[in-house]
């Protein structure tokens, strides 16, 4: 069933497509002054967010902000730096097209993960408002950018093992919060979605890609850039759970340690599938510690039931070895940002 467009009470009502009905329908109304997720009882207007079920109101408006420089552009949004004038806090202002179905779903996932979240390992959510067909999402500004941005500054695109252990510890804490507290699978763990700041904080962002990406990925090679971190069970369209994030984590850490993605570069979707499914489980060469290689081996089992959980990985000797060490992560990040 194709999505229908109806005009009711001066609101554009978007009915769910058949693939959405697999997870429950999601009806959305778009008016000149706001966007409403009907089933969730969540409305984003010009004065901020209102959540009907909990009575939560998060007020932020365009008048509160002084938009400054352009930060970057991703697949789902453009991002600018903005000053929150009432508090003097610098924010990252993410602009999402309200009429783009995929981006609306991304927005809903972000709000579900971040609303009323106090986890220091997720980027902080300050609120959102509606402005001329776009939803403006105000997030914590991470001045170091992403891990992808960081390694581009290095003479060799690798992160030293002690530093990487410190970074991994914080990433695990963020994933653990999503899995254990929010009961949510991130679904898009990759270097681009792990943000850092000059204080040494490492935080997850972009909480979940839409279901439609999974359901159409066999037809579109433009998704290869995101799909290379997907677990084998997701690639094959099988049921998946929290362990799919662990596979993605393992591949990302191997890439950050070696300076290259662990599988041969693929130019097509089919080639990528063949690389992952026919090759042995990836690991690290002999130059790395045995503890590090053991940690990775528990992340990248092709059988998802054999992968360790975030709790088990957080207690792994490789993580514990550096957790109380004198490795100075903020100093290392500062040195990278000065390059």
UniProtKB/TrEMBL annotation:
Keywords annotated in UniProt: ATP-binding, Kinase, Nucleotide-binding, Serine/threonine-protein kinase, Transferase
One Gene Ontology MF term: protein serine/threonine kinase activity
EC number annotated for this UniProt entry: 2.7.12.2
Residue ranges occupied by any Protein kinase domain in the UniProt entry: 65-319
A Pfam entry, by short name: Pkinase
InterPro entries linked: Kinase-like_dom_sf, Prot_kinase_dom
Top-level EC class as recorded in UniProt: transferase
SMART domains cross-referenced by the UniProt entry: S_TKc
Alphabetical list of CDD domains matching this protein: PKc_MAPKK_plant_like
Catalytic activity as recorded in UniProt: L-seryl-[protein] + ATP = O-phospho-L-seryl-[protein] + ADP + H(+); L-tyrosyl-[protein] + ATP = O-phospho-L-tyrosyl-[protein] + ADP + H(+); L-threonyl-[protein] + ATP = O-phospho-L-threonyl-[protein] + ADP + H(+)
Family matches, as PANTHER family: DUAL SPECIFICITY MITOGEN-ACTIVATED PROTEIN KINASE KINASE 5, DUAL SPECIFICITY MITOGEN-ACTIVATED PROTEIN KINASE KINASE 5-RELATED
Family (UniProt): Belongs to the protein kinase superfamily. STE Ser/Thr protein kinase family. MAP kinase kinase subfamily.
The protein's name: mitogen-activated protein kinase kinase
Species, as recorded: Stentor coeruleus
